[in-house]
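[retry 2/3] FHA domain-containing protein: previous attempt timed out, resubmitting with same input.
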Amino acid sequence: MPFSASLARGVAPTAPGTLHARTVTGDLCVPPSPGRTVRFGRGEHPDVDLEVGVDDLRVSRRHGELTYRRGHWWLRNTGRQLVRLPRGRMMHTTTEPVPLTTGYTPLFVKGSGYREHLVELYVADHDDQGPGSRRRADTLRPQTWALDDDERLLLVVLGQRYLLYEEDPRPLTYSMAARQLVHLRPYGNWNGRKIEYRIEAVRRRLHDAGFRYALMHDRSEERPSDNSLLHNLLKGLVESTTLVPPDLNLMDDAPGGPDGTPAGQP
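[retry 2/3] FHA domain-containing protein: success.
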């Protein structure tokens, strides 16, 4: 049955399973009750309980719904456009409903062009004070990863396009990085094989430490390329702020450009 936001008034946000949902045009708070359904989309009440993408004709009038059953809120896409969940997971109208975990879940409704419309979902857990209960708490620092000086320089050279925040960046090849490192560390005896060995050692160490992205080959699955694992490493180091744009200053002494060729040469 559809839920009207007015019914949520007075509901304690600390109740386990309580759903908080918010878009740029509205928000609601829904107690957990078997069979209760919250609908969201471009339409108006009573067709939907939460409006999203109200000026975007690519968003369906009823684009999705959340139904409480078996102790969980289950998300289903009912619109024509895809719904994107964290870690790149997509939902089509034919996709089976997925249960929300407790805590925060963002979902994005595909719209016109590059538009994506955010729906923020929060499911309260036991002893949870709700999504706004931590406003005065200290900000948690990002989890960064320890690198020695040589590793940092090597990763900055390989990942300089990531540190420039280019669209769809890719790492330099080991041979390109070796040519540039010769100018930075003339006595380092850098070559592609040595760089590959050092990168593999970093990947293995961070994999064992619980790095966010895959860094090692999974023998149970199709073997990914080393380039994809290096991409995962650089992406994770930049996202975690282990590597930051000022690290590019480590290359200030290098006469080489970003492709590893000496400055002034084609």
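[retry 2/3] FHA domain-containing protein: Residues 1-13, 254-266 have pLDDT under 50 and may be disordered.
[retry 2/3] clearing retry counter.
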